[in-house]
Amino acid sequence: MKTILITGGAGFIGSHVVREFVLKYPEIKIINLDALTYAGNLENLKDIENHSNYHFIKADIVNEKQILEIFEEHLPDGVIHLAAESHVDRSITNPLEFVMTNVIGTVNLLNAANKIWKNNFDGKRFHHVSTDEVFGTLGEEGFFTEETSYDPHSPYSASKASSDHFVRAYADTYGLPMVITNCSNNYGPNHFPEKLIPLCIHNIINNKPLPIYGDGKFTRDWLFVIDHAKAIDLVFHEGKNGDCYNVGGFNEWQNIDLVKELCTQMDEKLGKEVGTSEQLITFVKDRPGHDLRYAIDANKINKELGWKPTVTFEQGLSKTIDWFLENKEWLDNVTSGNYQKYYETQY
Ligand code: NAD
């Protein structure tokens, strides 16, 4: 039996990647390695936790010794690396935590893979999951391609850029077989409610203000998380060794327009008069180093591997809202305790 180790599988995107692999590849042993930080939640995987090819290991990628022992014991053929500190605002208040997990943690995984695969790279692959934020910001025109120079502006994006460089350096220096995907903003079920879309859904349900940075003109490209999981599957299995692939939804929205669209859908689903939720919109002080616009050119993955998003934004948003409305307990659980304390200091 082949073994694939997925890091960060209890988080938002990782849980969808783990589910995709567990269900699609019953003959492959899937190990979900996750430290279960505030963002990790095994509830995200309740439906597949009893599958015989699914295994969970609680471990911290910053712990070099523990990671090496896990690699030596389980001898994974493939690694899909999603574990990260992922929230830009948190990176502004605690950059070092981002360096530890995103940079040191990645290097620990690379070292462990290098050590157990040394001189036998046949059928081996390290897939590093990264973000479009490493490219910095765009003006009103243009797109990020795989050739765009790195220009990160937040401690989060700087730590992800650094981890991308380490992955490439290990390929160049040691011949480590790798692929990297740089994806735009994801949304969908299991999304932690500190991020814009689930935060607004949660606040509309609870009749709380909808905080929008600056003038709301910041523009992001949005992709339904299951389409990202499918892209990762495709690149992991069929991507060219050593290559990077941009993944995006061809779906740009200014924050203010996106929140208004969300308000309209929520009003309809909650049986409120359209326009009710929009009244909750509150503009808040902009975050430092905020990038104006991200937009991904996803033509390479489309042309080379045939990937394209399977749901429109309208469908994806509707599915996402329905999921949050049907899983209020999940939302209540993650918005209590420590998260609540953090949240109260932010807004
Ligand atoms: P998330 O914050 O929801 O999940 C991160 C997971 O990593 C959690 O389960 C957490 O417990 C785990 N983790 C954190 N530190 C760890 C450590 N030291 N050891 C082991 N596990 C640890 O993040 P996400 O939004 O699902 O993002 C997953 C990956 O995808 C990240 O690498 C992120 O940079 C990248 N990405 C995210 C987006 C997005 O829109 N969310 C877009 C592009 C790329």
From TrEMBL:
UniProt keywords, alphabetically: Lyase, NAD
Coiled coil: none
Superkingdom of the source species: Bacteria
EC class of the enzyme, as a word: lyase
Pfam families the UniProt entry points to: GDP_Man_Dehyd (PF16363)
Chloroplast in keyword set: no
Protein name: dTDP-glucose 4,6-dehydratase
Species, as recorded: Chryseobacterium kimseyorum
Biological classification of the source: Bacteria, Pseudomonadati, Bacteroidota, Flavobacteriia, Flavobacteriales
Gene giving rise to this polypeptide: rfbB
